[in-house]
Amino acid sequence: MKLLSYILAYRQFLLVVFSVLVLLPLPLVLHAKEAECAYVLFVVAIFWITEALPLSVTALLPGLMFPMFGIMRSTHVASAYFKDFHLLLIGVICLATSIEKWNLHKRIALRMVMMVGVNPARLTLGFMSSTALLSMWLSNTSTTAMVMPIVEAVAQQIIRAEAEAEATQMTYYNESANRVLEVDETVIGQETNKKKEKTKPKYSNDAEKVSSKMDMEKNSITGAKYRSKKDHMMCKLMCLSIAYSSTIGGLTTTTGTSTNLIFTEHFNTRYPDCDCLNFGSWFLFSFPIAIILLLLSWIWLQWLFLGFNFKELFKCGKTKTVKEKACAEVIKQEYKKLGPMRYQEIVTLILFIIMALLWFSRDPGFVSGWSELFSENPGFVTDSTVALIVGLLFFIIPAKTLTKTTPTGETVAFGYSPLITWKEFQSFMPWDIAILVGGGFALADGCEVSGLSKWIGNKLSPLGSLPVWLIILISSLMVTSLTEVASNPATITILFPILAPLSEAIHVNPLHILLPSTLCTSFAFLLPVANPPNAIVFSYGHLKVIDMVKAGLGVNILGVAVVMLGMFTWIEPMFDLNTYPSWAPAIVNDTMP
């Protein structure tokens, strides 16, 4: 028993040692570059999936192992750890830092909820819409962390308001009953008065029983949080709606989530002649998917926890209930706390709009973009150029004047503070993700240089006999399953070097398989540990694991179905997916010794 406890205590250390040793015969026996690269790939994949080492630490292993096996020079591996992606990430984090520092994100969220209304179903849709909108530009994690305190305050205020309303109704009921008994006393006399005195405590006892039953019910669930099962279901609904909508919103832009950024950089590196993926084209194909999935998820969650009544939802001119009035008051008070829009918020909003417009108009595809101004050097100006231009402005534009008081009592200006400082930027910059992505790029380069990508493609070529829709469905389901137990960035980093050669081997447009797989990488809805937004909402104590499994399974199925629908409707003609493109190479058959 003591030995077992030690094994459990050192399980991560043992997993690292055994993984390295058990797989070691692969490069030692086969003596091929493909086998040596496969060894590195397996070790890194195991460490990423199990998190035996921190993800960013595991990402450094290719920089150590590729030079040792003679696959790539150390200088070449090191160059993979900082690419165009990282410049884009820096610019985006500058924007996110300013938005969160000056509370612009909170103002946007509250204003959207106020516009939608306070009907419970509409309120949920309002929170989901505002969360998805913010998640398009901020990280899913920070969006969830920002919105959840507002949602929690609204939910608790609704519960308190209903309790007060019921208490008022009970008081009114008791007073009415007492007045009736007093009339009986006057009319019937002393004999009836005795009966009334026997009867009078009965009303009081009934009220006490109702109150006692109510207290017992709320305490039996989670310690004075809920008055009824319906209140508990409402809290579950709101929590899950925030977690899922933050993930869905991140699908719509290349900067919305790290998996999108990782994929686009991998894709552009592997297929440099393809100029079909940029911020604008990504938004055009993914936005309809996100809108459809957001609405279906809203309907599914509403039906699962509170039931869905279309008649009540779209009924106009209906008098607001106590719950709706309480909810509206909370949101209104939260918005009032922000005060009038400040100079810093206005400047941040303007820069935010400028960045979005520049991204969209750089190379829209259907018309010439402003990148034509640099036609002498095509491909030199990218989305990261826009991000850096706007990002640098946050360090330049003054936010407020710094003053000091002189010995004579005079207040003088001695400097200014910009919209964001380097220290604030550093606190927001996800350096672990930057290193993780760099490790993924190094791994992909190693697979290409060693010939492992070609070997995998050749072995998977028999799958070409299957219908394309079935291959896409299988890969999407495989990715959706893996991303529940592995981090989203690790999942896309592991599977890209496999799926890209697969599409080339079976002579299918790589986008046909890679786009749905990339979107499905974000569909980590089942477990609290599947992604940070799930963990954040789970920490509020309203949910059980089984709640997330039931709700997440439905959203996963809806997500895969919507992605499949999009691939064979509006996305297919956008990228001409039915033809094998000239920018994608055909794989030459090679075999591993």
Automatic annotation (TrEMBL):
InterPro entries: Na/sul_symport_CS, SLC13A/DASS
Membrane topology: Multi-pass membrane protein
Subcellular location: Membrane
GO molecular function, one term: sodium:sulfate symporter activity
Pfam family of the protein (one): Na_sulph_symp
Keywords: Ion transport, Membrane, Sodium, Sodium transport, Symport, Transmembrane, Transmembrane helix, Transport
Recorded GO CC terms: plasma membrane
Nuclease is among the record's keywords: no
Main location group: membrane
Signal sequence coordinates: none
Membrane-crossing segments per the record: 42-69, 81-99, 237-263, 283-305, 343-360, 380-397, 551-571
Family: Belongs to the SLC13A/DASS transporter (TC 2.A.47) family. NADC subfamily.
PANTHER family per the UniProt record, alphabetical: SOLUTE CARRIER FAMILY 13 MEMBER, SOLUTE CARRIER FAMILY 13 MEMBER 1
The protein's name: Solute carrier family 13 member 1
Organism: Marmota marmota marmota (Alpine marmot)
Gene: SLC13A1
